[in-house]
Amino acid sequence: MTCFVILHYLVSEETINTVNSILKNVNGEMRIVVVDNCSPNDSYDVITQTFSNDSRVVVIKNKTNAGYAKGINFGYNYAKENFQPSFIVAMNNDMEIRQHDFLTIMDDIYKETGFYVLGPDVYSTSAEKHQNPETDHIRTLSEIDEHVNSVTKTKNNTIKLKIKGMLRRSKLIYNLYYGKKKSDNKKKYIDSRLSNVTLHGSCLIFSELFIAKRNYALFPETEFYCEAQILDYECLRDGMLQIYDPALKVYHHEDVATDAVAGSYAAKMKKKCERVLTSLELFRQLMMEDQKNG
Questions:
Q1: Which of 32-36, 83-87, 187-191, 233-237 bottoms out in mean pLDDT, i.e. has the lowest?
Q2: Using alpha carbons only, what angle is made at residue 37 by residues 248 and 124, rounded to the nearest 5 degrees?
Q3: 93 three-class SS
Q4: What values do phi and psi take at 28, rounded to 5?
Q5: In terms of Cα–Cα distance, which of 283, 253, 226, 280 is closest to 67?
Q6: Under 8 Å CB-to-CB from 47, ≥6 apart: which residues?
Q7: Burial letters for 114-134: b for 16+ Cβ neighbours within 10 Å, e otherwise?
Q8: How many CA atoms lie within 13 A of 285 on its CB side?
Q9: Could you give phi then psi for residue 180, rounded to 5 degrees?
Q10: Which domains does the chain have, with CATH numbers?
Q11: d(CA 122, CA 133)
């Protein structure tokens, strides 16, 4: 039995499309747990009604929107307690699976490697970018310091953020800039299995070994950002094997263009930087506590 945990917030159409891609394309015994992260609209009711006649889909509602990690953990615990799955696949609500043998391939990889956490090839359809494995990893206090300095510089450079925001609103400049980035990104696909790398947090597969060991999927103190980096650190610390394997593939339908023109880019980036800095401080505290405890 495999449980898919999908974190939903506000946009019911994206979540419905993700669930349907699993129901229509993936063969095997499964349950899908949709976690509504306390959306302040009627999307919980819409999703519940849409799948009311399919016993494979369960829609649950979180009492508060406590961020990404706690939302995923809420669904992870529900799946673990109610279905006793061999695997839990935690996903964003803007994903698509097209492989009919997704579960078979996943099980074969587990039999070959004994992984605790598995990451597939995650392909961003808008940026035309392969997102796994993550290029950034944080495993030492000095690397946290480097990230803090970098993020702080970005946050404080208001003029540069405003100029970049104006440039991104130009469709011509946007297409020229991102067209080049897309061309560069196409070269970054890794076609072989890798061990103990930082995995992209949009799709994480937890095996029965991980499920038996932990009652939470992601470090629960963060609200946004650094979840994958902290998981990578914890897996290395605790001897839990992480695997990237491109035999599995998921499609990530991020709407980069819409995000770029909607609202103030500078304000959004400042908010993001503040959240990243908060998560990095929590990460620092975790590392320091580990060092204190030997």
A1: 187-191
A2: 30
A3: coil
A4: 125, 175
A5: 226
A6: 8, 12, 15, 16, 19, 34, 36, 59
A7: ebbbbbbbbbbebbbbbbbbb
A8: 9
A9: -65, -40
A10: 2-292 (3.90.550.10)
A11: 8
pLDDT above 90 covers a percentage of the chain that reads 76
pLDDT of the residue at 294: 77
The Cα-based distances of 167 to 45, 182, 257 in angstroms read 39, 18, 13
| Distance (Å) of CA 252 to CA 39, 45, 53, 201 | 21, 25, 27, 11
Q: Beta-strand (E) ranges in 15-116?
A: 30-36, 57-61, 87-91, 95-96
Length of the chain: 294
**Dihedral sign, Cα of residue 240, residue 246, residue 250, residue 254:** positive
pLDDT at 188: 81
Quick one: which of 70, 16, 13, 14 has its CA closest to 38?
70
Per DSSP, the three-state class of 29 is: coil
Task: Tell me what the mean pLDDT of segment 198-217 comes to.
Answer: 97
Average confidence (pLDDT) over 217-235:
95
Give the pLDDT score at 174: 55
Distance, in Å, from the CA atom of 204 to the CA atom of 209, rounded to the nearest integer, reads: 14
Nearest to 270 by CA among 162, 190, 143, 189: 162
Residue 97: how many other CB atoms lie within 10 Å: 23
Question: What's the pLDDT tens digit per position in 95-146?
Answer: 999 999 999 999 999 999 999 999 999 999 988 899 999 988 899 999 999 9
Question: Which residue in 223, 239, 236, 211 sits closest to 272, CA to CA?
Answer: 223
State residue 210's pLDDT score: 98
Distances (CA, A) of 222 to 48, 133, 135, 225, 279: 28, 21, 21, 7, 6
Closest residue by Cα to residue 43 from 20, 18, 14: 14
